[in-house]
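Q: Sequence in, structure out?
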Amino acid sequence: MQILTKYFPDLNEQQLKLFEQLLPLYTDWNNKINVISRKDIEHLYEHHVLHSLAIAKVIQFKAGTRILDVGTGGGFPGIPLAILFPECSFHLVDSIGKKITVVNAVAEALGLKNVIAEKARAEELKTRYDFIVSRAVTSLPEFYNWVNSKISIKNNNTLQNGILYLKGGDLSEELKPFKKRSDVFEISDYYDEEFFVEKKVIHIFKFL
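A: Exactly. Output:
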């Protein structure tokens, strides 16, 4: 938890309480359904929660913003972002039902009223959202094709509506189709830990 308060010192008492509950909840559920690497669970706050919250270093979602988390797995980045932005709505989807079982259980245990989780593929959804978030589920061009039609045209935030994608390494080839429609934010500009070297938040604007 200290690593969270280091970078997010303004968390209120309720948010701190909810973040504190994540480790016991995920430890318990991970013993039943493996959604996080067994070796990685001890690094939950750095590798999963703080990584998810890197999006909040790039944008402060305004109240009422609608966010879709595609390929959420155990609930990342959606669950940490939902705790940080309680006045925004989050729709978390994954094609693997047992992962959604965990996400629903965690959201219910935390009392998160701004989270809906369901087993689904992005292509099947009919709703539009302000932002689509995800953690490296596939290549950026493929991901963009999945979700472009789900992005609302009306902008209400400081960043233009689109994709906020967490991914590391050399992304020059993947970003070629989006050369004039993307921003790259180095997470190491916000966090000191070695884990975040070469990790990025990619913002791809909606193509009209």
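The chain has a mean pLDDT of 95.
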